[in-house]
Fold this protein.
Amino acid sequence: MAILFRNRLQCGLLNPRKPKEEKIMRTMLDKIKSRKFLMALLAAVTAFIKAYYPDFPDEALYTLAGVALGYIAVEGFVDAVAQLAQWLAKRSERNAH
């Protein structure tokens, strides 16, 4: 068991001395631009439109939802690529030393 713990510690998987990151308050603009908020806003707008305009064409709602989901998917992909690039940079920096 001690060998497994030592190997994880050496590989960087387990580091008890690693300082905890401080949580920084996000600005209001960051909160408004978040994907969760955009999905909630889309759901609210869709519910409002269907409640007050029952004869509103479903195809128009599907188009709005498709555009919003496409935007959210692209933003998620961009975030994932940025995280991967950051991870690779740290990894190459660690291997260089």
In short: Helices lie at 2-11, 28-32, 35-52, 58-96. The mean pLDDT is 78. The chain is about 75% helix and 0% strand. The two ends are 29 Å apart (CA to CA).
